[in-house]
Amino acid sequence: MAKETATKKSKETKSQTKQFEADVGRLLDIVANALYSNRDVFLRELISNAADACDRLRYETVKNPELVSSSPDYQIRITTDKDKNTLTIADNGIGMSHDELVENLGTIAKSGTRALMEQLKSQNSDKDSLNLIGQFGVGFYASFMVANKVTVTSRKAGEKDAWIWESDGRTGYTLSKASDKSSSLPHGTVITCHLKEDAREYIEHAKLQNIITQWSDHIDLPVFLGEERDDETPANTAKALWTRTKSDISDEDYAHFYQQVSNGLSMDTPALTLHWRAEGIIEYTGLLFVPSARPWDLYDPSRKNALKLYVKRVFITDQCENLVFPWLRFLRGVIDTQDLSLNISREMLQTNPVVTKIRNGIATKTLKELQTLAEKDNDKYMAFWNEFGPVLKEGLYDARDYTQDLLKLCYFYSTHDTEKQTTLADYVSRMKEGQKKIYFISGENLQTLRNSPQIEGLVSRGIEVLLFKDTIDDFWIPTVQQYEGFEFTSVTKGQIDLSEIEGDETKTDKNAKAKDKKKEADTSSLDPLLAQLKTILKEDVEDVRLSSRLTDSPVCLVASDTGVDIHMERVLKIHQHYTPESKRVLEINPDHALVKALSGQSDNKAIINDAAYLLLDQARIALGEQVPDPNAFARRLTTFMSKGLAA
Ligand code: ADP
Ligand code: MG
After folding, report:
1. Which of 32, 343, 451, 505 has a Cα at 20 to 30 A from 499?
2. Ligand 1 close to Cβ of residue 104 (< 6 A)
3. How many domains does the chain have?
4. Which atom of ligand 1 is nearest to the CA of 50?
C-alpha cells in the first residue's frame, strides 16, 4: 500500500531518475565504446521501431476508432539541426505511456536483444561482442553508438500526458512529464539523438538518404527527410514490397526485405525466396524466405513461427501459431490476405479456417519449391538440409498429409557412401534382390554407427544400412513405418532374417547357401555354451542367442522384439527420465574364434563366468554406453589378460 502511493506520487513529481537494469548497463557499455564498422544500422532500428508503432496504432484503431481524431497519414519524419548537432526521428504511431517507457527502454525485455545478451555472456572478448551486435542488432540502444544523449518524447494514443525520457546511455535515465507545449503531437514518439563528436556525418541528408535507401526502402509508410514542405516526396519507396510485381523487384530488394522482416536478426542470404499470389477460394500474397542459416531460436521448445500476418496491408500479428506448421517454423516473411476481417481478434486467429487453409498453402508451396531446389541445385539444397533437416523431419512425425512429399526431401547418411547422403529412392534402387526392408541404425555419432557390430552382417552381404543420427528419427519411424511398401527396420532390435536376400556373398560363391545350411548344423555344438551364458546373465539380459548380423565382433546387444529400440530408449531416458522395463538380447557370433574357444572351456566355470560378463560389457561399450560396474570389469579384464600373457 505504502509503496503504491510512493510510485504514484513519484509519477507526478517533475522528474525521476532511474537506474538501468544490469544487463542494459553492460550492453550500453559495449555499444558506447563500439568503433563499430556499421554504425549506420542505428537508423534502421529507429525507423523500424517507428514503423512498428504506426502498424500497431493502425491495428488498434480498427477496434478503437476514437483513438485518433481523423485517419492520420502515418509517416516518419527525420530532421537534423546543425547548430545543436541533433538528429530527430518522429513518428505518429501508437506512442508509449509512462510505464511503457520504463519497461521498453529501461530493461531488456525484447527477445532479440535478450538473445544477444545471452550470447554476450558466453563471449570473452569485447571484439567478439561487437561482431554479435552486427548479427543481432540491438534495437533502440543502437542509438547510443552515435549519440551521447538521447531524448525520447512520447504520447500514447488515447492518453492525456506526454512523457520525456532522457539518458546519456551510461547508468540510468530520467523520466518527466512533458509540458503541454513541448509535445504538440497528438500521439507518437519523437526521438532526438544528440550526436557524438565523431558522428557528425549523420547531420548530412545525403548520408541519411543513403542509409534509408539501403535499409528502410520497403517500410510500408513514407519516411520524409527534412522539414515539412508542400511538394515533398518520401525518401523511401514506401510501398510494401510484396504488393509489387516480381519482375520489378531486384535480388537486392528481396535481400533487404528479408533483413527487415527478420528484425535485423538474420544476416544470411536466404536459400530460397518464395513470392507468390494464391488465387482461388482464398486469396493471399506470400513473400517468404527459407533462410540459409539457422535462426538463433530454432530449437526453442515453443516451436513458434515468426511470420508476419497482414490483412489488407495492415499488420495484424507475428504470433499466429496456426499460420505455419511448427516444422516449417524457420520460414521468415509476410502473408497478406483479403479474406480475414481486420477486426479478428488474435485469439480467434488460432482456430480460423482461412488461416488453416493458408497454412496448408504455405506448406505445399514450400515443399514444392524445396523439391525443385533439390533437383536443380542439389549442393544448395544439401546446405539447407544440413541446417534444417531435423526440423523438417518433425513433419514426418506430426503431419500425415505431407509424409510422402517430405520423404522425398529427406537425405540420410548410409553405409553406401562415407560422404554423401542418400535419398530413400536411391536406397531402394540399390536394394538386393529379395530385400524387403529398409535397414537402419540410429545413434548420435556417425563414426560409432559405421563401426557398430550390429551392421557387420548386413554390410558384409552388401546390404546398405541407413545411419540415422538425428534424435527426431527415432520418433518419426513408428509413425511413418514404411517407404513405398518397404518397412523401416532397425538393426538393433529383434531378430533379423537375411536368408532370403541375395547378398554379394551369394553371387561370388554359388555354394554359399549350402554352406549356410552346414553352418546351422554346426552351431548345435555351441548349445551348452549358450545355456551357460543364459544362466549367468539371466538378470541382465532377456536372452542370449546366436547371431547372423555379426562378422568381426564376437557379440552385440539388440533390443528384444517387443522392447523399445536401443537408441530410442537412451533418448527417452535423457528427455523423459524414462527407466527401461525391457531387457535386451545378447547376440553371439558363432564364427568368432573367441566364441569357439570359450565353447571348448565350458567345464571351467570361473572362466565362463568372467567371460560372460566381459562379453556383455564389451557389447555395452560398443553401443557407446557405460559399464555398470567398471571395477568388476577391470578386474575381470586383468584376470583374462594375465592368463593370456602367462600362457
Ligand atoms: P524491438 O523493436 O525488437 O522490440 P527495440 O529495442 O528496438 O526492440 O525497442 C524496444 C521497445 O520499445 C519496442 O518493442 C517498443 O515497444 C518500444 N518502442 C521503441 N521505439 C518506439 C516508438 N517509436 N514508438 C513506440 N514504441 C517504441
Ligand atoms: Mg526495434
Report:
1. 451
2. yes
3. 3
4. 23
Q: How confident is the model at residue 129 (pLDDT cuts 50, 70, 90)?
A: low
* Whether residue 126 has pLDDT greater than 80: no
Residues 94, 167 within the same domain: yes
| Pocket-testing residue among 23, 31, 49, ligand 1, by greatest number of atoms within 8 A of Cβ | 49
Q: Are residues 521 and 564 in the same domain?
A: yes
Query: Measured from the CB, is residue 55 less than 6 Å from ligand 1?
Result: no
Q: What is the pLDDT of residue 71?
A: 72
140 lines ligand 1 (CB under 6 A): yes
Run of H or E including 353? helix 353-376
Q: Are residues 128 and 162 in the same domain?
A: yes
Give every CB contact of residue 139 below 8 A, 6+ residues apart in sequence. Answer: 45, 49, 110, 112, 113
Closest CA to 506 of 613, 455, 433: 433
d(CA 582, CA 117): 45
Range with the largest mean pLDDT of 192-196, 341-345, 472-476, 514-518: 192-196
Residue 312 inside a domain? The answer is yes
Q: Is 92 in the pocket of ligand 1 (CB under 6 A)?
A: no
- Whole-model pTM? 0.77
Q: 53 CB under 6 A from ligand 1?
A: yes
Q: Are residues 250 and 153 in the same domain?
A: no
Could you tell me the pLDDT band of residue 312, with boundaries at 50, 70 and 90? confident
Q: 260 and 204 share a domain?
A: no
Residue 637 has pLDDT above 90, yes or no: yes
Task: Tell me how long the chain is.
Answer: 647
Ligand 1 atom closest to residue 141's alpha carbon, by position in its atom list: 6
| Better-scored residue on pLDDT, 483 or 142 | 483
pLDDT at 615 > cutoff 80: yes
392 assigned to some structural domain: no
626 close to 456: Cβ distance less than 8 angstroms: no
Q: Is the pLDDT of residue 52 over 70?
A: yes
Domain range enclosing 492:
411-646
Q: How far is the CA of 98 from the centre of ligand 1 (A)?
A: 14
Residue that has been written with the C-alpha cell 567345464 in this structure: 603
Helix (H) or strand (E) holding 53: helix 41-63
Residue closest by Cα to atom 17 of ligand 1? 104
Helix, strand, or coil (residue 135): helix
The tens digit of pLDDT for each residue in 239-250 reads 889 999 999 999
Mean per-residue pLDDT of the chain: 87
CA distance 28 to 31: 5
